[in-house]
Amino acid sequence: MKHRRIAVEAALVAVALVDGVLSLYRYGALEIALTVIAACGLVLRRHLPWASLLLALPALYFADGPTAAVIALYSLAAATGSIPALAIGGGAVFVGLTGFWLHYPSVNMFFIFTVYALMTAGGAIAIGLLQRTRRVLKVSLAELREAREHELERIASEAAAGERAHLAREMHDVVSNQVSLIAVQAGGLQVRSEDATTVATARRIRTLATATLDELRQMVLLLRDGDPQGADLAPPPSVERLRELLAEQDLPIESRLDLPEDLSPAIQRAVYRTVQEGLTNVRKHAPGARVRITAAADAQGLLVEVANSPATEAPSEPLPSAATGHLGLAERAALLGGALETEPLPDGSYVLRMRIPHYQR
């Protein structure tokens, strides 16, 4: 855009200079000098249109060089909408174009020069005002478009806030109440039962239900506030919590964790959720299977792998599932520049793998 503007300005100056060069055979050095000054004055037309017009008027009056004056008058009209200013500038150019002080051989000739002057000066002003109006409309259109975008963002934000509030109510009224009931009944079973295995199982169910309630509470707060900074969230999943998760499992697990402690929160959350999803799938679809977990990071990237052997027991009654666990993990991996892979093997084994080529600490 800058180079285009420079080219346009140079072309206008060149046209005005040609107007003076074509007059060499009729005028002397003074007239040529006035024409050159008028042409060079066009350089000021965008920022100082009045100065450009004043520099062009001597050439119009004394050297018969109208080009620079007409261009300067157009620039004045494009820069200001002041009627007095345009009347003064247009009148000066009109008088210079008509040459009232000259002797015309006939009334018809005088009339022709007057109409020519009126059309030339008036046309320059009209085109300049049109350009100014176009510029103003362009700015107004941009402001209107920006206001419309802000309004759409506001409507979308209000709709999202309403949906978050609805989800928060549903989670509290349905999910939280049912999980609370599970925790209460597990606690009662833990107290009433005399079988050590049943007591341990009930204790674990109560612990898991309590942890789930805590996460649900944090999620409800987040949904209602709509601002992660404003909600009193629990610590995000981390490498240390991953070790705690593995220690709580009653599955035969072989693990190799080689992760730095200073990984970014997004990376740590992705690692934790991948392992958590893999363990959940093993419990649901491959009871009795052995599990091998690898989570390692090196210069080439980060690898999280949850692999299980074939099931040794028949799966229990299937639990309700939205089948979105892998989809959510794939989205997490994509946001981090990585990918999620699943590999069911012919012998019934299964591998869940997330790769992140370049990770940030």
Explained architecture:
There is one protein chain. This protein has 361 residues and is α+β, with helices and mostly antiparallel strands. The chain folds into three domains: 2-102, no CATH class; 152-225; 239-313 and 322-356, 2-Layer Sandwich (Heat Shock Protein 90). The protein has helices spanning 2-21, 29-41, 49-62, 66-79, 83-98, 107-192, 196-225, 239-248, 265-285, 325-335, and strands at residues 253-258, 291-298, 301-308, 339-344, 350-356. The protein has a five-stranded mixed sheet. A hairpin with a 5-residue loop joins strand 4 (339-344) and strand 5.
So what's the CATH class of the largest domain? Alpha Beta
Count of discrete structural domains: 3
Quickly count the helices.
Answer: 10
Strand content: 5-15%
- Report the structural category: alpha+beta
What is the 3D shape?
A: rod-shaped
User: What is the CATH architecture term of the largest domain?
Assistant: 2-Layer Sandwich
Q: Which strands sit side by side, in order, in the main sheet?
A: 1-2-3-5-4
EC number: 2.7.13.3
Transmembrane segments: 12-44, 50-76, 83-104, 110-130
Keywords: ATP-binding, Kinase, Membrane, Nucleotide-binding, Phosphoprotein, Transferase, Transmembrane, Transmembrane helix, Two-component regulatory system
Protein name: histidine kinase
